[in-house]
Amino acid sequence: MYVAIKRFVDLTDDDHIYNAGDMYPRDGFEPSRERIIELATSKNKLETPLITYIEDEKQSVAGNDKVEDEKDIPKKTTKKAKSE
Question: What is the DSSP string of 40-79?
Fold first, then answer.
């Protein structure tokens, strides 16, 4: 389950307006996995995350439904740290 963190218009949902704090997706709408990734990361027209994953207390959701922004994932480096 996701919640809107900023106000946005979902262009794939008949221009439905989501305000900050609204649950995403609304009842009766099934977004694609790709659309959830677009909205949860900066890979959308506004270039900022618009939704975030929240745990549903009624239904325990496996971690594989969670989408993380790529900038939160540590990058591997190939340079060795200098020792003093």
Answer: HSS-STTSS--EEE---SSSPPPGGG----GGGSPPP--S
Element (H, E) at 32: none
Q: Give pTM, 2 decimals.
A: 0.66
Residues in the chain: 84
Integer CA distances (angstroms), 66 to 19, 41, 57, 80, 81, in order:
21, 11, 15, 32, 33
Secondary structure of 4-16 in HEC code, one letter for each residue: ECCCEEECCCCCE
If we measure between CA atoms, which residue out of 29, 47, 38 comes closest to residue 67? Answer: 38
Q: How far apart, in Å, do the first and last CA atoms of the chain sit? A: 48
What average pLDDT does the segment 7-17 reach? 96
In the sheet that holds 51-53, the strands lie side by side as 23-24, 2-4, 51-53
Residue type, 69: D
